[in-house]
Protein backbone atom coordinates (compact mmCIF):
# COMPACT_ATOMS: atom_id res chain seq x y z
CA UNK A 1 0.00 0.00 0.00
CA UNK A 2 1.39 3.35 -1.03
CA UNK A 3 0.73 6.51 0.90
CA UNK A 4 -0.45 9.46 -1.14
CA UNK A 5 1.46 12.73 -1.16
CA UNK A 6 -1.05 14.28 1.20
CA UNK A 7 -0.65 11.41 3.62
CA UNK A 8 3.10 11.70 3.60
CA UNK A 9 2.73 15.40 4.23
CA UNK A 10 1.06 14.67 7.52
CA UNK A 11 3.81 12.23 8.38
CA UNK A 12 6.55 14.70 7.69
CA UNK A 13 4.75 17.36 9.64
CA UNK A 14 4.46 15.17 12.70
CA UNK A 15 8.05 14.12 12.44
CA UNK A 16 9.16 17.72 12.14
CA UNK A 17 7.29 18.51 15.32
CA UNK A 18 8.89 15.54 17.05
CA UNK A 19 12.33 16.73 16.06
CA UNK A 20 11.74 20.26 17.25
CA UNK A 21 10.39 19.35 20.66
CA UNK A 22 11.20 15.73 21.35
CA UNK A 23 10.17 15.85 24.99
CA UNK A 24 6.78 17.17 24.00
CA UNK A 25 6.29 14.87 21.07
CA UNK A 26 2.61 14.25 20.55
CA UNK A 27 1.29 10.75 20.41
CA UNK A 28 -0.57 9.47 17.47
CA UNK A 29 -3.82 7.59 17.78
CA UNK A 30 -4.65 5.92 14.49
CA UNK A 31 -8.37 5.98 13.81
CA UNK A 32 -9.21 2.70 12.15
CA UNK A 33 -12.96 3.07 11.73
CA UNK A 34 -14.16 1.68 8.41
CA UNK A 35 -10.65 0.40 7.73
CA UNK A 36 -10.09 -3.30 7.13
CA UNK A 37 -8.16 -5.50 9.54
CA UNK A 38 -5.26 -5.76 7.09
CA UNK A 39 -4.64 -2.05 7.33
CA UNK A 40 -4.44 -2.27 11.11
CA UNK A 41 -1.99 -5.15 10.84
CA UNK A 42 0.14 -3.26 8.35
CA UNK A 43 0.25 -0.13 10.51
CA UNK A 44 1.09 -2.28 13.52
CA UNK A 45 3.95 -3.73 11.52
CA UNK A 46 5.28 -0.20 11.13
CA UNK A 47 5.29 0.35 14.86
CA UNK A 48 1.87 1.86 15.49
CA UNK A 49 0.32 0.47 18.67
CA UNK A 50 -2.65 2.72 19.44
CA UNK A 51 -5.83 2.47 17.40
CA UNK A 52 -9.27 3.92 17.89
CA UNK A 53 -12.72 3.02 16.64
CA UNK A 54 -16.05 4.70 17.24
CA UNK A 55 -18.73 2.00 17.03
CA UNK A 56 -18.91 -0.72 19.67
CA UNK A 57 -19.99 -3.45 17.27
CA UNK A 58 -17.34 -2.63 14.69
CA UNK A 59 -14.68 -2.44 17.37
CA UNK A 60 -15.71 -5.76 18.82
CA UNK A 61 -15.53 -7.44 15.43
CA UNK A 62 -12.20 -5.90 14.52
CA UNK A 63 -10.53 -6.60 17.83
CA UNK A 64 -11.74 -10.21 17.80
CA UNK A 65 -10.39 -10.81 14.31
CA UNK A 66 -8.09 -13.85 14.63
CA UNK A 67 -5.46 -12.27 12.38
CA UNK A 68 -5.31 -9.11 14.49
CA UNK A 69 -5.25 -11.13 17.70
CA UNK A 70 -2.31 -13.20 16.54
CA UNK A 71 -0.33 -10.50 14.70
CA UNK A 72 -0.81 -7.58 17.09
CA UNK A 73 -0.25 -8.82 20.66
CA UNK A 74 0.67 -5.36 22.02
CA UNK A 75 -2.13 -3.43 20.38
CA UNK A 76 -3.96 -0.85 22.50
CA UNK A 77 -7.53 -0.14 21.50
CA UNK A 78 -9.22 3.15 22.28
CA UNK A 79 -12.95 3.69 22.07
CA UNK A 80 -13.57 7.15 20.61
CA UNK A 81 -17.30 7.16 19.89
CA UNK A 82 -20.31 8.07 21.97
CA UNK A 83 -21.02 5.33 24.48
CA UNK A 84 -24.50 4.46 25.66
CA UNK A 85 -24.96 2.74 28.97
CA UNK A 86 -26.59 -0.31 27.44
CA UNK A 87 -23.42 -0.92 25.39
CA UNK A 88 -20.95 -0.73 28.24
CA UNK A 89 -20.73 -4.46 28.99
CA UNK A 90 -20.25 -5.19 25.33
CA UNK A 91 -17.44 -2.66 25.07
CA UNK A 92 -15.70 -4.03 28.14
CA UNK A 93 -15.49 -7.40 26.39
CA UNK A 94 -13.24 -5.95 23.67
CA UNK A 95 -9.87 -7.70 23.69
CA UNK A 96 -6.98 -5.31 24.46
CA UNK A 97 -9.26 -2.41 25.32
CA UNK A 98 -6.96 0.23 26.81
CA UNK A 99 -8.74 3.57 26.83
CA UNK A 100 -12.23 4.99 26.81
CA UNK A 101 -11.97 8.51 25.40
CA UNK A 102 -15.56 9.60 25.78
CA UNK A 103 -16.68 9.62 29.41
CA UNK A 104 -19.16 12.46 29.76
CA UNK A 105 -21.61 11.44 32.49
CA UNK A 106 -21.04 10.37 36.09
CA UNK A 107 -23.52 7.52 35.64
CA UNK A 108 -21.64 6.30 32.61
CA UNK A 109 -18.38 6.37 34.56
CA UNK A 110 -20.02 4.34 37.35
CA UNK A 111 -21.30 1.75 34.94
CA UNK A 112 -17.95 1.44 33.18
CA UNK A 113 -16.23 1.15 36.53
CA UNK A 114 -18.41 -1.70 37.75
CA UNK A 115 -18.33 -3.49 34.42
CA UNK A 116 -14.53 -3.27 34.32
CA UNK A 117 -14.37 -4.52 37.90
CA UNK A 118 -16.53 -7.52 37.04
CA UNK A 119 -14.17 -8.36 34.25
CA UNK A 120 -11.53 -8.81 36.93
CA UNK A 121 -8.72 -7.00 35.15
CA UNK A 122 -5.71 -6.21 37.31
CA UNK A 123 -5.04 -3.00 35.35
CA UNK A 124 -7.19 0.08 35.64
CA UNK A 125 -9.00 1.21 32.53
CA UNK A 126 -7.67 4.60 31.46
CA UNK A 127 -10.30 7.17 30.60
CA UNK A 128 -10.59 10.62 29.12
CA UNK A 129 -13.36 13.06 29.82
CA UNK A 130 -14.94 14.35 26.64
CA UNK A 131 -15.74 18.03 26.76
CA UNK A 132 -18.25 19.70 24.50
CA UNK A 133 -16.14 22.81 24.08
CA UNK A 134 -18.41 24.73 21.74
CA UNK A 135 -21.67 23.85 23.46
CA UNK A 136 -23.39 22.65 20.31
CA UNK A 137 -26.30 20.40 21.21
CA UNK A 138 -25.54 18.01 18.41
CA UNK A 139 -22.24 17.10 20.01
CA UNK A 140 -21.68 14.84 22.95
CA UNK A 141 -19.52 15.70 25.87
CA UNK A 142 -19.68 17.35 29.23
CA UNK A 143 -20.01 21.13 29.43
CA UNK A 144 -16.66 22.66 30.47
CA UNK A 145 -18.14 23.80 33.78
CA UNK A 146 -18.73 20.18 34.81
CA UNK A 147 -15.13 19.05 34.38
CA UNK A 148 -13.80 19.42 37.91
CA UNK A 149 -16.78 17.69 39.51
CA UNK A 150 -16.41 14.86 37.02
CA UNK A 151 -12.74 14.31 37.80
CA UNK A 152 -13.55 14.37 41.52
CA UNK A 153 -16.35 11.90 40.95
CA UNK A 154 -14.06 9.46 39.15
CA UNK A 155 -11.34 9.77 41.79
CA UNK A 156 -13.81 9.23 44.64
CA UNK A 157 -16.13 6.59 43.17
CA UNK A 158 -14.42 4.74 40.35
CA UNK A 159 -11.37 2.92 41.71
CA UNK A 160 -11.01 0.85 38.55
CA UNK A 161 -10.73 3.89 36.30
CA UNK A 162 -7.77 6.17 35.85
CA UNK A 163 -8.47 9.64 34.54
CA UNK A 164 -5.64 10.76 32.29
CA UNK A 165 -6.82 13.25 29.69
CA UNK A 166 -9.32 15.77 28.49
CA UNK A 167 -10.65 15.29 24.99
CA UNK A 168 -12.59 17.46 22.59
CA UNK A 169 -13.76 17.06 19.05
CA UNK A 170 -14.30 20.77 18.57
CA UNK A 171 -15.56 22.73 15.63
CA UNK A 172 -14.67 21.63 12.15
CA UNK A 173 -13.28 23.91 9.55
CA UNK A 174 -12.17 26.65 11.91
CA UNK A 175 -10.55 29.47 9.95
CA UNK A 176 -7.17 30.21 11.51
CA UNK A 177 -7.25 33.71 10.03
CA UNK A 178 -9.78 34.38 12.78
CA UNK A 179 -7.23 33.41 15.42
CA UNK A 180 -6.57 30.17 17.30
CA UNK A 181 -9.37 27.60 17.46
CA UNK A 182 -11.44 28.59 20.51
CA UNK A 183 -12.32 24.95 21.23
CA UNK A 184 -8.68 24.11 21.75
CA UNK A 185 -8.23 27.22 23.90
CA UNK A 186 -11.12 26.09 26.10
CA UNK A 187 -9.47 22.72 26.70
CA UNK A 188 -6.09 24.30 27.45
CA UNK A 189 -7.52 26.65 30.04
CA UNK A 190 -9.72 23.93 31.53
CA UNK A 191 -6.64 21.89 32.25
CA UNK A 192 -5.04 24.86 33.96
CA UNK A 193 -8.07 25.39 36.15
CA UNK A 194 -8.46 21.71 36.92
CA UNK A 195 -4.84 21.19 37.87
CA UNK A 196 -4.84 24.26 40.09
CA UNK A 197 -8.07 23.38 41.89
CA UNK A 198 -7.21 19.74 42.47
CA UNK A 199 -3.45 20.22 42.87
CA UNK A 200 -2.59 17.89 40.02
CA UNK A 201 0.74 18.45 38.23
CA UNK A 202 -0.09 19.80 34.76
CA UNK A 203 1.91 17.10 33.01
CA UNK A 204 -0.41 14.47 34.44
CA UNK A 205 -3.40 15.72 32.50
CA UNK A 206 -2.91 15.42 28.78
CA UNK A 207 -4.95 16.98 26.03
CA UNK A 208 -6.42 14.93 23.24
CA UNK A 209 -7.43 17.23 20.41
CA UNK A 210 -6.78 17.52 16.71
CA UNK A 211 -7.67 15.34 13.72
CA UNK A 212 -6.22 15.06 10.21
CA UNK A 213 -7.42 18.48 9.24
CA UNK A 214 -6.26 20.50 12.22
CA UNK A 215 -3.74 18.43 14.17
CA UNK A 216 -0.82 20.74 13.41
CA UNK A 217 -2.58 23.69 14.94
CA UNK A 218 -3.75 21.52 17.84
CA UNK A 219 -0.16 20.50 18.58
CA UNK A 220 1.03 24.09 18.38
CA UNK A 221 -1.45 25.11 21.05
CA UNK A 222 -0.69 22.19 23.35
CA UNK A 223 -2.27 18.94 22.20
CA UNK A 224 -0.41 15.87 23.37
CA UNK A 225 -2.51 13.30 21.53
CA UNK A 226 -3.92 13.57 18.06
CA UNK A 227 -6.46 11.33 16.36
CA UNK A 228 -5.70 10.72 12.72
CA UNK A 229 -8.08 8.81 10.49
CA UNK A 230 -8.36 9.86 6.87
CA UNK A 231 -4.63 10.53 6.42
CA UNK A 232 -3.47 7.41 8.17
CA UNK A 233 -0.93 6.51 5.48
CA UNK A 234 1.56 8.56 7.45
CA UNK A 235 2.13 5.59 9.73
CA UNK A 236 4.93 4.42 7.53
CA UNK A 237 6.71 7.69 7.98
CA UNK A 238 6.49 8.42 11.62
CA UNK A 239 5.77 6.75 14.87
CA UNK A 240 5.62 9.22 17.71
CA UNK A 241 6.08 8.08 21.27
CA UNK A 242 4.23 4.90 22.02
CA UNK A 243 4.96 4.46 25.69
CA UNK A 244 1.66 5.23 27.26
CA UNK A 245 -0.94 6.07 24.72
C1 LIG B 1 -13.15 9.71 12.63
C2 LIG B 1 -12.69 10.36 13.87
C3 LIG B 1 -11.42 10.98 13.92
C4 LIG B 1 -10.48 11.04 12.74
O1 LIG B 1 -10.82 12.06 11.88
P1 LIG B 1 -10.01 12.29 10.51
O2 LIG B 1 -10.50 13.59 10.05
O3 LIG B 1 -10.35 11.15 9.62
O4 LIG B 1 -8.55 12.30 10.86
C5 LIG B 1 -11.05 11.56 15.12
N1 LIG B 1 -11.85 11.53 16.21
C6 LIG B 1 -13.05 10.95 16.20
C7 LIG B 1 -13.87 10.98 17.44
C8 LIG B 1 -13.51 10.35 15.03
O5 LIG B 1 -14.72 9.76 15.04
Automatic annotation (TrEMBL):
UniProt superkingdom: Eukaryota
Cofactors demanded by this protein: pyridoxal 5'-phosphate
Keywords: Pyridoxal phosphate
Residues carrying N6-(pyridoxal phosphate)lysine: 33
Leader peptide range in chain numbering: none
InterPro entries, sorted: Ala_racemase_N (IPR001608), PLP-binding_barrel (IPR029066), PyrdxlP_homeostasis (IPR011078)
Domain spans labelled Alanine racemase N-terminal: 15-232
GO molecular function, one term: pyridoxal phosphate binding
Function as written in the Swiss-Prot or TrEMBL entry: Pyridoxal 5'-phosphate (PLP)-binding protein, which may be involved in intracellular homeostatic regulation of pyridoxal 5'-phosphate (PLP), the active form of vitamin B6.
HAMAP family in the cross-refs: PLP_homeostasis (MF_02087)
Family named by the database record: Belongs to the pyridoxal phosphate-binding protein YggS/PROSC family.
UniProt protein name: Pyridoxal phosphate homeostasis protein
Source species: Jaculus jaculus (Lesser Egyptian jerboa)
Recorded name of the encoding gene: PROSC
